[in-house]
Amino acid sequence: MIEHLQPPGWAAPKGYANGVAARGTMIFVGGQIGWNADQQFESDDFIAQTRQALLNVRAVLEAGQAGPEHMVRMTWYIVDRDEYNARLRELGAVYREVMGRHFPAMSCVQVAALVEARAQVEIEVTAVRPD
């Protein structure tokens, strides 16, 4: 059971939830970056790497018998806030393509660098699979 939490009188969030309540088996997806299953980058483009990172998150969820609909928390680490903001329309389209219209509580943080030098984005997720 997953319930989105929205305080009365608050403006509706766009592309995320303000809060989520859930009951079930918790699944923690470690930070996924934009490389493929062989740990090879196919692109240095931010949107292409984000798509691959989201596909990686989805694959880990599926390994835990869960899907995007079970996500309750998502944290994005990005190296370029300006590019993130400039490409929000493309980002939204890629997100919906891979994750559908499942919007957990989200945070996005700009960092100086990620451990993998070519990585532009890293995404971690907490999901709850109903028992």
Order of helices and strands: EEEHEHHEE
- Please, what is the average pLDDT? 96
- Kindly estimate the percentage of residues that lie in beta strands according to DSSP: 25-35%
Rg result: 15 Å
Low-confidence stretches: none
Q: What general outline do the C-alpha atoms trace?
A: globular
Report on this model:
With 131 residues, the protein is an alpha+beta fold. The chain contains three helices and six strands. 27% of the residues lie in helices and 31% in strands. A four-stranded mixed sheet has the order 3-6-4-5. The protein has a two-stranded antiparallel ribbon with strand order 1-2. The mean pLDDT is 96.
Question: What is the element layout, followed by pairings?
Answer:
Layout: E1 2-5, E2 19-22, E3 25-33, H1 46-63, E4 71-78, H2 81-86, H3 88-99, E5 105-110, E6 121-129
Parallel strand pairs: 4-5
Antiparallel strand pairs: 1-2, 3-6, 4-6
Helix pairs in contact: 1-3
